[in-house]
Amino acid sequence: METAKLLIVFVLMMVLLWRKIPLVYVVIGASIILAFLFGTDIIGFLNMVWSATKDPSTIEIEVILALIMILELILRQQGYLERMLNSLTKLIKDRRIVMAIIPAFIGLMPSAGGALFSAPLVEQAVGKSVSPANKTFINFYYRHIWEFFLPLYTGVLLVSNITGIPLTRVLLGLMPFGILVIFLGLPFLFRIKVDEELAIVSPTLEAITSKNGVKETRRNLIKDVFFSTLPVIALVSLVMAKVPITLAITIVIAVLSIRHKYNLVSFLKLAHKAIVIRTLIMIWGIMLFKQVMETVGSFEELPALLGNLPVPEFLIFALIAFLLAFLTGQTGSYIGIAFPIVMAATGGNVSVPLVVLVFMAGSAGTMLSPMHLCLSLTIEYFKCDLNKVLGMLVIPESILVGTAIVSYLILS
Hints:
InterPro entries: DUF401. This protein is mainly alpha-helical and 412 residues long.
């Protein structure tokens, strides 16, 4: 009964989103409705609001997003983005490939805010010649290809720790699906048509290059790409060196501020211009909804409810992971709940194919969830229709889960 209340609220959310009600209003309204459906009084709900607001993860995400907004504007004002894309589009003639490389590169940095960082670059690469839905899909989809390859992402680390399977075996089991993810996105990428006249170009930069007499050899273009992306390369390198993401972005901003002689007044003006309050409120609303779900225990009955279904056990595990991921939009939530259930049900004797299946089902749930921060940020940036993007996402995600099921049946 309790789980049914959660599902009703989530269906209502999907209907409102389908009617194009902004996500920021939907998640805050859903948080209020869910809390009171579970008998929470005003004081109890205000306590949830306070808990969500002061939660370290909420504060961290908000600070990261604000810093990324500032960093992106510095890079834009100082011409880094223009130089990078001007050189990159001359090295790689097909702007669609550039469009996919950008979020994949930024995706090396495992932070929700990375989707917000790559979105303006995708916009810069193709401009108004590509629809908001296609730009949203490519930015969101190709940002997440690395979570099947890199131990930088906490998902694979958590799975290895919970199951006791060595990290290398987990990564080897997931790697074929990471490759498949890349290829499944290509039909969507190459069906896009880019009108060069509507794409954003850099005539000013080209004029400067011509005036200075710099020969645009391939070597010079590669050097220009490197130096124009150096702040981002430095940021990714710091994160890979285990520097906390907030500190890493702060260091890069500080260096750029000194390099380009921002004083306190000019920096504060830049920060005021860069930070989009509406986006920060939307993310706070998502964290509030997560807090309400956790406080009222709305999905505690879910495993037992699904366990009564007349379907094979491995499908139950996959369904639990998918629903938890879809309802929360967070990798940690489905891994932290679904995998302990799998371990308990199997007596700790879990195979790599089963681990891969549950992981892929949960991954599909997060990729299709409106609660996923990367998706919500990209939708907000491109002012896109969520339903169009979900319609594209459901195809590759269904193929991935279907392949994982077949692989489990063959290898088990």
